[in-house]
Amino acid sequence: MLISREMVLDMDIGLNAALFGGDMMARMDKVAGIAASLLSRNRRFLTLKVSELVFHSPVRAGEIIEFYVGISRQGRTSLTLQIEVQVYEPVSDRRRDVTSGEFVMVAVDESLHPILIQWKPEMVQVAAQAHADRHPG
Ligand SMILES: CC(C)(COP(=O)(O)OP(=O)(O)OC[C@H]1O[C@@H](n2cnc3c(N)ncnc32)[C@H](O)[C@@H]1OP(=O)(O)O)[C@@H](O)C(=O)NCCC(=O)NCCS
């Protein structure tokens, strides 16, 4: 499911006239937190693990980036999210893959200890359908 769209500004650009990879990772981490909150009734999540982060192509200033999230695994206290980032070009209506990665988020209580996830079934269904639509077959 589409979680957010952002524009990359001149101020976000690092070496090589492209978006700094650490900036993209921070944006994806925030998106993972937002997605976890949308999919559950839990207040707090911590990022436990980030894996298979691949930067497919550089992002330039002025480009619009879109963050899509699918659920790879529904656990007891954790959920694993597949995040795909694409550049959207409004004039041509084209998209290109820029980054993808897997985030394991753990629901925690006020003391930051793991607790059970209280799923929102309707949101899980929306996410599953969106993921299936983007990856048919
Ligand atoms: C997140 C945290 C609270 C989890 O506590 P923990 O005692 O390590 O984790 P547990 O052993 O209780 O496992 C919690 C869940 O994570 C899963 N998990 C643990 N290690 C994992 C790993 N290496 N890969 C994937 N999942 C893992 C467990 O399977 C469990 O999920 P489930 O209940 O859905 O099966 C703890 O590791 C922590 O505080 N980490 C730091 C988080 C942080 O600061 N993040 C910001 C980065 S700067």
TrEMBL record:
Keywords, in A-Z order: Hydrolase
Pfam families, per database record: 4HBT
Database matches in InterPro entries: Cytosol_ACT (IPR040170), HOTDOG_ACOT (IPR033120), HotDog_dom_sf (IPR029069), Thioestr_dom (IPR006683)
The keyword Coiled coil belongs to this UniProt entry's keyword annotation: no
Occurrences of domain HotDog ACOT-type (ranges): 1-111
Family (UniProt): Belongs to the acyl coenzyme A hydrolase family.
Name of protein: Acyl-CoA thioesterase
Species: Geothrix limicola
